[in-house]
Amino acid sequence: MSPKALDPAVRTALVDAAARLLVEEGPNALTTRRLATEVGSSTMAVYTHFEGMDELRKALALEGFERLAGYLAGISTSEDTVEDMTALGGAYFFNALANSHLYRFMFMEPHDESDEIGLNTFQTMIEAVGRAIEAGRFDEADPEELATQLWIMMHGGVTLHMANCLTFDEALHMLETMALNLYVAFGDDREAAKASIERGRERIVEHLAAESERLGLEISIPG
Hints:
With 223 residues, the chain is mainly α. The protein has eleven helices and no strands. α1 crosses α4, α1 packs across α6 and α5 packs antiparallel against α7. The chain is elongated. The model has no long low-confidence stretch (mean pLDDT 86).
């Protein structure tokens, strides 16, 4: 007899439940029995999918970066490189909201096992910045350095929103304002940057319309 195929839905449920328990209750809450109870499975399911709790912890950060990579991959490139960067930033924000416990776990502490895929996701923004430089929108500079500044901006806005320090609308407004200031500082024309930000917001909302509804977000599009 061939072995029974693993149910990906069970694995996803285990990952989500484990991230929630770690973030909300701390490491001591994450036991095999507690996790099985949370997802309505047997303790054997944990060992079947992850070969134990240590392997599960290692998988959490990797899963978080894989989900982020999926959101970023949904943003196609266009002739407007600054619009693309804005849309990528929106995808980053949406991923954090859709996978909030995993997002918190990803950045609570270093995870050596996630280095490769983490770099892959960041490489997407580095390449977008590089295209903006090649297109003449940004001045000559190190794309990784500029991308890091944008990432710090996004992470700060996301974190303040998730900590209930900023409402969603406030966070979105501040992120767009900061993005405009950074784009101009990088060498872009202010009016061109404003137009790109508006188009980027429209693209991300249209692309993630179903996700917006699921998350209970109402996002207005500038006219």
